[in-house]
Structures are given as structure tokens and as C-alpha cells.
Amino acid sequence: SHGVMKMTVIGCGYLGATHAACMAELGHDVLGVDVDATKIESLGAGTVPFFEPNLDDVLKRNIAAGRLRFTTDFAEAAQFGRVHFLGVGTPQQPTSGAADLTALRTAVRALVGQLRGEHLIVGKSTVPVGTSAELADEIAALARHASVELAWNPEFLREGFAVDDTLRPDRIVVGTDPGRPDSRAADKLAEVYRAILDEPTPYLTMDWATAELVKVSANAFLATKISFINAISEICEVAGGDVTALADAIGHDARIGRRFLNAGLGFGGGCLPKDIRAFAARAEELGVGSALSFLRQVDEVNMRRRTAAVAMVERACDGSVLGRNVAVLGAAFKPESDDVRDSPALAVAAQLALRGARVAVFDPKAMGNAARGFPTLRYAESAPAAARNADVVIVATEWAEFVHMSPDELSGIVARRLIVDARRCLDGDSWTAAGWDYRALGSTVDGPAPAAVEVVAAAQNSESLV
Length: 466
Ligand code: UDX
Description:
By secondary structure, this protein is an alpha/beta fold. The chain has helices at 14-25, 37-44, 55-64, 74-80, 102-112, 131-142, 162-167, 185-192, 194-198, 208-239, 243-251, 272-285, 293-316, 344-354, 367-373, 383-387, 400-403, 407-411, 428-433; strands spanning 6-10, 29-33, 68-71, 83-86, 117-123, 146-152, 172-176, 203-207, 325-329, 358-362, 378-379, 392-395, 418-421, 437-440.
């Protein structure tokens, strides 16, 4: 029917699988492509290989409707359609922190040589500024029998809201070749997104470099906002202030805004930590490292929260966790996700285990990924099971089921009624009223000082989902 286009989505990890399913949901004919045959088989059978609310439904519905298929064959992709989205991962390089563009280059090479006629390649991955220009040169050299244009269209979706964020984005950003003012790429993409743009959605066109920078700047800003409030919480800890009341109060200023001002264990996940490091590394390559040197501090403030959580637990345990039973509630880097990449919760759990605690972890969705990344921790089958005989319970990810947990339910199970709220998500008064020693990260700490705690290193990751 009218407006239906044929397109491929190359790279079917978190971003690509969501994008492919959502483009089919808009009515398009979509072919998902990935080099990972297991992933492709699973997606083709209608099973999302990770947890994301609603994605399963969208995937199944569109496969059933015949609008969505998956393949590992790039020749098929080259023939299938004239618009090709790139959603492959751009992970962090181990030493420099810079982005690793290997998967992106490999995907471009696998596709472009096989193209015939006119095509539009649309990058969605988060990349260092300058990548589009570089890839375009590579594409021009590879496209012997085709005329291929490149646009950069960054994705802002949040895990846990991926489908909604894709179908109802705050804005759509499209970067095109500044050397081609006559480019039709932005119009072509507006056609792809027609159904979204029918609902008023800002459609912002700009040059490649700006579009690339929009994405990393947005994430750098969000990370800075979180570290800002966490830095203030360090002050509150020694001065006796209440960082939550403070965030509420400053958040009423519309210029500041209350969202992303939740103090606690800080940010983790597959994007924010890696993106600020890659952005800082790129600034250095460009000779303006000092412009983003504050991002190193944003990173440091964030990592110090993990250290502070470990220290708070040690203080609460009279200086040492050696031999203590510690229940860690939460393993995912945030609620509504099974992603444990750079998870603050698991970094704390691992550090406590290193310091001799007997740690039991429970998470509603992330147990499998957590156990693969941290096989030596003990995993319990429920929050109460993790809390059985615990000397201290830590809430490390603010899943609703932990937030709404009744203190009385755990009171008879634990060895000692001591709870550390590392996400400041519990109603402390109700825990105190039920006879618990309630402590929150970001509030005054007392008790004997623990032995020096080393900075908890960036957690090792489970298999990458991107
Ligand atoms: C982020 C961006 O929000 C998204 O736009 C981008 O496309 C990808 O990166 P995501 O990684 O899914 O999305 O998670 P997000 O909801 O941003 O949370 C990131 C981390 O910050 C989580 O660990 C979360 O617990 C933490 N966080 C968030 C806080 O500590 N405090 C807050 O107030 C908000």
C-alpha cells in the first residue's frame, strides 16, 4: 500500500532488533541482518534474545503479518531494499576508551560492494564525530556499481522503553553530507518516518558532524546531571543534608528539571559510561581534550558512588564484611532491563565478595546475564531467599518489587534488620518504624570507618547485547 518501503536493518542487537521491529510496525517491509546466526534464528522465530517490555509482541505481530524477516546473507540485503540502517555495536576499546568501529566497517564492506543502483545508508550507531565523513569515503571507494548516499540518524532510545521511544521519539535527528546541499537523503528518511512525523515530532536536519555530536552530547549531559547530584550527595553525607529533598527543590526550576537528578549508585549500562569515555577520547584526538576533561570527573564521581556504597555497608557491619551474609537486591544496571553491562549493582556485589562477604544476589530479570558475567556470586531465587540470614540487605537496583517490599516480610527472615538503600528508593520511615536500621547512600554516615576501599573497577560485562 501507499508509503510502504523496503528496508534492511544491519546489526540486530538491542538497537537494531528494536528498530527493525518498529519499522515493520510502521507498515514497512523490513529485513533484519546480522552475522550472528543464533541471534537471527531466534529473532526469526519471534523470540527476542534479551528482555525489553513489549518488543516480543511487536516482533511476533510483524513476523506474522509478513512484514519482518531476518537473514545472515548480505547479498540478500543488498537486493532487498534501497534503504539500509546500520545498528551495529560500537563498543569501548579496552585501553583508550575510544569507540571500536570494527563492526561498523565490516558491515559497510559486506554490504556496499554488492549494491546496484541508488541506495541510502543510514547510520544509527553512536559514533565519534567524523565517522560519517570517513565512512562515506570508504563507501565511495567500494560502491563501484551503485550510487550510495550516507546519512547519520542517531538513536536516543532508553532500555526498558525502547519500543515507545522508537515509535514516539522526542525528536528525529538527521545528519547529511555538508558537501551535497542538493542531497535528497533527509527527504527520503522523512518518508520512512512519515507515520511518526504525522504526530508532530521535531524533524531536525543538519550536517553529519552535528548529528554525530548531538547523540554524544545528549548522553554526556545526562551523565553529567547524574554525577552532579551524586557529587552534591557526597556533600550531604558529611554536612547532614538530604539530597532527595534538595533535588526536588532545585528540580522545580524548569531550567534544571527534576528528571535524571536521582542520587544513588550512579549510572551504568551499555551507553552512558562508554559514551562519555569515547567522547573524551575523541576530544583528545582532536586536540581539545581540555574541553571535555570534566567528563573524566563525571566518570570519577560516578565510580566513587560504588566505592561509597561498599564503604557504607562495611561501616554498617562494624568495619568489615568478612564472613557476613550480604543480600544484594538488583543486578541489572537499572529496573525494567536484564542488561548487566557496567552494572553498579554487580560491581558492588563483586567488591563485597572480594572483601570476604557471603553475597547472595537476586534480580527479577537479570539473573542469567549476571551469572554469566559473575559466575562466582551466589544467586537466590527471590528477594526473601537472598535476605535469608542476611546481616545486611542492600537495594542496588530500584525494581518496583523492591521499592514496594514490606519491611515486615523480611523482618523475620534476616539475621539483623539492617538495610542499605543505595538507590534512595525506599520509604525509610516505614523501615525504621518496623525496627530496621535504615541507611541511604547520600545521607549522613556514622559508625567506625572501614579500611580503605579501592575504586571499584568498571565491571566486566556479560556478553554484549549490542
Ligand atoms: C541512555 C540514554 O537515556 C538514552 O537516551 C541513550 O540512547 C542510551 O543511554 P539507558 O542506558 O537505557 O539510556 O538508561 P538510562 O535510563 O539513561 O539510565 C542510565 C543509568 O543512569 C542507569 O544505570 C540508571 O540507574 C542511572 N540513573 C538514571 C541514575 O543513577 N539517576 C537518574 O536520575 C537517572
